[in-house]
Hints:
The protein has helices at 2-12, 87-94, 101-111, 122-135, 139-155, 159-175, 179-192, 196-220, 231-246, 256-272, 276-289, 294-304, 308-311, 315-323; strands at residues 26-30, 35-43, 47-54, 67-74, 78-82.
Amino acid sequence: MKKFFAVLLIAALPVVSSGQIPQGLDTVFMAGGEKNVGKLAGLDAQTIRLQKNLPPPPGSPAGAPAVFASVRIPRAHIIRIEFAPDEAQDKTLKEAAPDQRAQIEALWKQFEPWLSVAKSPAGNIGLVYGDLLLRTGDADNAQKALILFTKIEKETWSPDDIVLAKPGRLRAMVATGNARDAMQEALALAKISADPEVLIEAKFILAEAADKGLRKLVEDNPRWEEDILIMPERHRLYNEALDLYLFPSLFFGSEAEPSARGLWGAVGIYQFANAMPDAVACARDLTAFYPGTRFAKQAQDFLNTLPESQKHEDHEKEAQQETN
């Protein structure tokens, strides 16, 4: 009876059969050819809930509050759903910074129920939120990111989201201490993929694992320079992390954000090894070649903290002058 009432109520409400859809509203395309327009408000296994604007009652004064009706539409009667475009939201997701994590979390909670619904932006929102969680460096947030990426990988409607969620899950595995299994998956991913984006993500995961391994090795062996058994492993991890972080730079011009991310990772390795001239040179390259990326600001902030004498050192130029 409830389903029948919902269908009758839908039939009595305005539908759009053709023409332009009002901005900011979602559109439900029905099996009979009509379109129901409103704001998606929820769903369960059988129905979706749509909030629709009603015409003002006869005799309503000008400026009277808007009237809404919440209706349930059987999912079996729906061909597809078109989510309202939101340029401001897209811009926020593209430029999301750590201090916007609460905002992106709220957005994820709003769209999470629609993760498996075709054309939903939920997967993309979740990927951004997961990345922000990992960027905090906090163990609890890394665990949240692992759960999030796993959910997206299993439930999203979008094959593209699945491709991006897998490296995110592996990065979260590294961050939660399961680097060994993450490295095995990343190695397998790097071997079978011909897609530069996937390959870059796989190598970044391996870079993070080598980075973490290097720091742990040095922490456990503070006198590594005097240990002939530890020294080779330290140098191997150091060079491996740098090579993997710098890999995206081979695609100069086409992979700006991953290249900048890799350069920033290299800056961190150089700092950890107290190779400050290399760290400065790497940060300069980052700001010069990839100024529009979020890592460029971090690199510039790092450069701004340096003493004036160190800011302007150019060891590469000095080496060339000595050679000449």
